[in-house]
Design goal:
Helix content: 10-25%
Largest sheet: 4 strands, antiparallel
Strand content: 15-25%
Number of helices: 7
Strand order of the largest sheet: 1-10-9-8
Number of strands: 10
Length: 249
């Protein structure tokens, strides 16, 4: 029987500080609204640099349910849609977990802007802009993190959800053991969810072993993989030559 192996390639992992003044080495607090520094930030410059992918974020239901719209059919439809995990993961400012009691609350920690990153250049330019203007910076793919680390009030978000490329590797071996037998594998970008990868596997005659909650990103937990995905380090998943629907759920 063919073996199933997960190989996580980790390297150059950089921890991002998303809490203002969380390290003594920082000279000042991060610039967040309504601080005076916020009004002078050239957001249009960032938008131009990332090819128009910058978005101003609101709470997910504000446009549909704000004010006197609370009883409208559009509001009811929007609220019902949030029962669907793929609707939630497809929204930049929506999260699968609303918080932990007396620890954090998503509604109080929503980013203000997001870059819908599609390329490495989009990510690099967003990081440079955040550093240049002393901004909080968070990274979000699907919003499954139990501890809310893909959210921070007044932050600039790098939203990697649209990075969906899956590339097949016919025979892959780990760098540490090039003499081992090669196995089929894939390279996935940081926005790929298990639902995307399972479908790809069925279409290409492979079985992918993964989680039962297929809205989760293939990168998995925040600590292990989200930051390394942003740094363009990949998770490679070995495949077997058969598909079985029973293994996907």
């Amino acid at each position: 029987m063919a073996s199933h192996r997960w190989i996580v390639v980790l390297g150059g992992c950089i921890s991002m500080v998303t809490l203002a003044c969380s390290r003594q080495s920082l000279p000042q607090c991060r610039c967040v609204p309504p601080s005076p520094c916020w009004d002078s930030i050239p957001w249009e410059s960032l938008n131009s640099t990332v090819g128009g992918k910058l978005m101003r974020l609101d709470q997910p239901l504000v446009k549909k349910c704000g004010g006197d719209k609370i009883a409208s059919p559009a509001c009811a439809k929007a609220v019902a849609g949030l029962d669907d995990e793929f609707t939630v993961t497809g929204l930049p400012n929506a999260y699968m977990h609303t918080g932990l009691f007396n620890v954090w609350n998503t509604s109080m920690n929503l980013p203000t802007y997001a870059v819908a990153a599609k390329s490495e250049a989009d990510i690099q330019n967003s990081v440079k802009f955040a550093v240049r203007h002393n901004l909080r910076l968070v990274v979000k793919a699907t919003g499954h993190d139990w501890y809310g680390r893909s959210a921070a009030a007044g932050a600039l978000m790098i939203w990697t959800h649209l990075r969906k490329n899956i590339t097949a590797i016919a025979s892959w071996t780990p760098e540490a053991n090039r003499t081992s037998r090669g196995v089929p594998a894939v390279t996935v970008e940081s926005g790929v969810q298990f639902s995307d990868l399972y479908l790809w596997g069925m279409q290409h005659g492979h079985l992918v072993i993964g989680g039962t909650c297929d809205s989760v990103g293939v990168g998995g937990c925040w600590y292990c993989c989200v930051m390394t995905f942003v740094m363009n380090i990949w998770v490679r998943v070995s495949l077997t030559p058969h598909s079985s629907m029973s293994a996907f759920y």
